[in-house]
Specification:
Elements (H helix, E strand, L loop, with lengths): L1 H18 L4 H42 L2
């Protein structure tokens, strides 16, 4: 996930700031502001994966129990 976020920043965000003439300090500030969003996204993805795992587990037990 870190590699994907880095790639997204490098290919989508950085070029726009670079083209606009943003300073290195501005880009560092952007990175710092993005970090909390990255953490929220990571937690959300984890929660979704856990929910899906639980649903699959319940579905499998239900199917075994109905046989």
């Amino acid at each position: 996930m870190a590699e994907e976020l880095n790639e997204l920043f490098r290919t989508q965000v950085w070029p726009a700031y670079k083209e606009a003439g943003a300073s290195a300090e501005t880009i560092r500030e952007v990175v710092e502001r993005i970090k909390p969003l990255s953490i929220v996204s990571l937690v959300s993805a984890y929660e979704q994966a856990m929910d899906e795992t639980r649903r699959e587990s319940i579905r499998a037990r239900t199917e075994r129990g109905s046989r």
